[in-house]
Amino acid sequence: MHQGERIFAVFLGVFGLIWIWKSTELPYLDYYAPGSGFLPLWLGVILVALVALFLWINRGAQTLDALPSNPRRLWSIAGGLALTVALIEPLGFSVPVTAYLLFLLRRVEATSWRTSILVSLGTSIVLFCVFRLWLSVPLPRGPWGF
Amino acid sequence: MLLHGFEVALTPTNLLFCLLGVLLGQMVGIVPGIGPAAAISLLLPLTFGGDPIASTIMFAGIYYGALYGGTITSVLLSIPGESSSVMTAIDGHQLARQGRAGSALGIAAIGSFIAGVIGTIGLAVAAPLLAQGALAFGPPEYFALVVLGLTSLALVGDSLIKGLIMGVFGLCLATIGTDPQMGNTRFIFGQLWMLDGVEFLVLAVAIFGVGEVLSSAENGVPPAKIEGTLRSAWPTYADWIASRWAILRGSVLGFFIGVLPGAGATIASFLSYALEKRVSKHPEKFGHGAIEAVAGPESANNASSAGAMVPMFALGIPGSNTTAIMLGALVMFGLRPGPQLFEQSPDLVWGIIASMFIGNAILLVLNIPLAGLSVLLLRARYALLYPIILAICIAGVYSSSNSVDDLFLLVAFGILGYFMRRYDYPAAPLVLGLVLEPLFENALRQSMTISQGSALIFFVRPISATLLLLTAVAVIWMSVSSYLRARSRRRGS
User: Fold this and answer.
1) Domain ranges of chain B
2) Residues of chain B positioned with their CB less than 8 A from the CB of A71
3) Nearest-5° angle of CA A49, CA A50, CA A51?
4) Separation of alpha carbons B384 and B296, rounded Å
5) In contact, B471 and B151? CB cutoff 8 Å
6) Alpha helices (H) in B98-138, listed in sequence order
7) Which residues of B touch A111 (CB under 8 A)?
């Protein structure tokens, strides 16, 4: 088993431990019936047990590393997405999303300026029309009114 | 009676409403975040004072149209807008990446049509009888059904234990928020925005949409351009041969699952996937683009919409959120759903049943050409396509809850989805665990209340005992066979 896979499994096990811990603060039984803490407690126990079993079964197993990775592209996309989401509340929907698309197309994918601008602006306008104008979804507005 | 129903459904007004319903439903299914229940709720005020038959025909059209609409985004973009499309996203999107999106969409359209017809025949022939049978399903039976469903889904993956871990993890995530029975808050860690819990759409779009994009981005070269030709846009004869029995099995299974109130299209689609993998001669193709893995679940989810009408018409019990709103509409029109509805309003019941035949035919006619058009979309370079997918993910998730907080969950679950793909953890058990937890927990607590705290209730009732026995046999059989396979591999090496 690859080291990263082991860490991921441990993360899931820790999640199960947190569920066990927090569910003890909830009522276990409600007269005869299970209370709010009953199912989460047992789910936590089962999750931890399954993760422990998984780690035990694969304790000696070694697999090849995953596919050749391109962490810069990966974290550019993920980090950009997180930043865009953080900016939606203060700046509205359209501007951060357009800027994010422009960043992905021009900076990450190195497409031409013309294509990048056309696709990013076109996508934002279509999404704004579909969600805001057609479906009346109140997409967040920025200080400039859109 | 059905002939009379066709007379009602084929009037120009009703035909127009049927077409309108199917079109609207399909659009609603394509746009993530707006489900058929929301669409019907929005349209409900517009039908005040209108013709109840035409309006209900339109609502039914929205219902089964949306089920197909979800297929399009699942196959093309790996974004399941509805929980019933989760299974389609797995193999459907793999087929799309092999340039066979048209085959997947075409088979889904054909399967949905056949399933819709079979389901409607079932509805016309056996509604009152089946509705009584559905009443035999009490809380213990639902509990056992969810256990069987989640376990069978874990079994169909490459690793049983990873499937089980994801299923339990999904159940855990679903316990976040307000306990529906006692009103306690659970696992919100002081964050009030978490009171509503984790929405299906957030998790599904993050895991399937964002996770897929991140996973592709990590590879040095993204999947680049998906090669698709107009010839590959249509299902081939071989596709049909591979899918025909899957469609038939999915239709029958979907209809009977749909009859059970609360079970619905989601359980139908993943049980069909599990069944198809079990009976397939090439189970190793599942997850990598097996056409029957699209045909079965798509047929099952469409047939279940006809099945869900059984308890609604015959007992006045809604089988899903959408039928609950349709039921409200019937009451609003002054009708009383229940056993008398067939006698008191035959025009309405048989008119709707007949309109479902027509609506399914309209869906088929609409979607076979659309399958060809999808090739145009997939000819775009992936470098241009994935930013658009991410923008749709953001807009779709925001529109479902109008909450920026859910967008942060989208990012977090997207990264989780990336790691799940990297380490081969199956996504379907996670998403379906989240979807099924309310049914699972309510059934457990109600059962234990009925039995005054004794777990024996699950083993003394024949249906739940049989379902749990099937689960145990499946797990033991799978564990033993994988142990034997591993041992023979070790001896071989």
Assistant:
1) 2-492
2) 218
3) 95
4) 32
5) yes
6) 101-134
7) 383-384
